Amino acid sequence: MKLLLVEDNADLSHWIVNLLQGENFAVDCVSDGESADAVLLTERYDVILLDMRLPRMSGKDVLARLRRRGDNAPVLMLTAHGSIDDKVDCFSAGADDYVVKPFDARELIARIKALIRRQAGGKSVSMVCGDLQYNTNTREFSHNDVPLALRRREHAILEALMLKQGKTVSKTALMDSVYSLEDEPSADAIDIYIHRLRKHLMHSTAQIMTLRGLGYVLRAKDSS
After folding, report:
1. What angle do CA 187, 166, 72 make, to 5 degrees?
2. In the chain, which end has fewer C-beta atoms inside a 10 angstrom radius, N or C?
């Protein structure tokens, strides 16, 4: 899953990016409202972390433009004040949730995961494909109740495939889920990650199938 962080405090931004990457999220980061608005015109994100007060355009204005374009991506506002007026401003602008600075790492991650679950429309906490399990609360994969030790990009690809289990996911879509704006996207690298994932799933009844020219699909081996 890919997140956008819009925060002008460099130290805080660096801390949040490291925290989110440690949770296996791909993260794009910009430091002002106009840059955020420009990125959101072309990129799609699973969650947007948006500071309320930003240079060049306020977070509230960025959010208002996003909603006018019909983009319903979950938005978590970062605000320095916990006043009633600030909370009302957040929700009036179309935010899904907010967190008051300074915040605890656990609270931030919990709120992000809650937004992701809400966006999933009440899907079961546990998703399965054959004997492969995915916990939507912890975002952990396991095989026969044994956790899979996946690298960040391997996790991102398997997560994208699991969330669209049985459906074809294009290589472009997988690249979008793996690479941030600062990365150099590589279609060949996706093939390498798929190869590694197949090794992880060697003894599983879940398999990743290649549909040439279309993409990849995750399904159980006994599926028709």
Report:
1. 75
2. C
| Rounded distance between C-alpha atoms, residue 68 and residue 93, angstroms | 10
Domains belonging to the chain, first-starting first, are 2-119 (3.40.50.2300), 126-220 (1.10.10.10)
Per-residue confidence of the chain (224 residues) as pLDDT tens digits? 899 999 999 999 999 999 999 998 999 999 999 999 999 999 999 999 999 889 999 999 999 999 999 999 999 999 887 778 878 888 888 899 999 998 999 999 999 988 888 876 655 578 899 999 998 878 899 998 899 999 999 999 999 999 888 999 999 999 988 888 888 888 899 999 999 999 999 999 999 999 988 999 999 987 44
One DSSP character per residue, 64-130 reads HHHHHTT----EEEEES---HHHHHHHHHTT-SEEEESS--HHHHHHHHHHHHHHHTTS--SEEEET
The answer to pTM > 0.90 is: no
Joined together, the tokens standing for residue 196 give 């590694």
